[in-house]
Design a protein that fits this description.
The structure holds two protein chains of two kinds. Chain A is mostly helical. Chain A has five helices and three strands; from the N terminus they run H-E-H-E-H-H-E-H. Classes of the chains: A mainly alpha, B alpha/beta. The interface between A and B is large, with 62 and 68 residues.
Amino acid sequence: MMRWDVHEQPDRLFAATGGRSRAYTEFDLVSLVVSESEPTAGMAPETVQILRLCRHPMALVEVSARLRMPVGVVAILLSDLLAEGRVSVRHPSSGAGGGGRSAPRGVEAAPARPPLPDTALVREVLVALKNL
Amino acid sequence: MHSKISETADEAPLGDVEAPLSDTARDAVKIVISGGFGVGKTTFVRAVSEIDPLTTEAVMTENGVGVDDVAGVEGKSATTVAFDFGRISVTERIVTYLFGAPGQSRFRFLWDNLFVGAWGAVVLVDTRRLADSFPVIDHLERKGMPFIVAHNRFDDSPDHTLDAIRGALDLAEAIPLVACDARSHTSGRDVLVALLDHLHTLSAAQEAAS
């Protein structure tokens, strides 16, 4: 799974993340985050904003864009909130770190090939897209 | 180095979120829209997305690994890149995030990051600058990432047939090639349907073989 680095705006980011440079929990760009609690007095402004944005599910990458903070920084903040039980995370079922389907036996010769998504899931998305 | 690669996407708005996802959304699917500079990636994402395209940035390294491996190490380059994305709620449960990824080979490290976990890619091509799409098509073929090619027809683009484009791209018959108008919601939707159709064929074939 990908990790995101933190170099931008060092002072602000150092303050926001307590100086740590990587998330302890790995998130996918499209892991959906949901608030499990409301902001309380004394919380850091970034935390308050995250909890408000995620009243409805929102992908890590979208939280990052709306907060105007790099993805890596938001991932660090989210890993703290996750550890504290203030948010929950719905990771993608296929793709990085998710389920997906492994290549069948005998195809190991091409290990770089990413797993294809589950056929039934593809069909569900295909049918829904056609009707949009 | 700061590479600003977004061409036209808006700054992320603060305040109320337009079109929030349904509370039942629990699975996100990633699809990459790639192609050369100015080919219409952001236009495409804007046409099909339920939100105005957003831009964010991340620091990425050449080899796609974390800061721990790069800090203090000379010779590996970490680059801040901005990228655009939009989303489509396809069902109550599933949301698709669409990422715009530039097709120039100097963005190879961005592809490696964005393609991780992606279902597949759409490569937009412009017949006036067909060669711009060669690097990303090569990359996708090497990585085994499912993709289709969509010819974004500009009003003044030469009247190439799809067969001629397929020949010029040396594209295998198995890779779908469609024409589109990146400004049109319906046309963009049809391109995504073509990608999903292709994915379904590949996935069903693999299922049958296993």
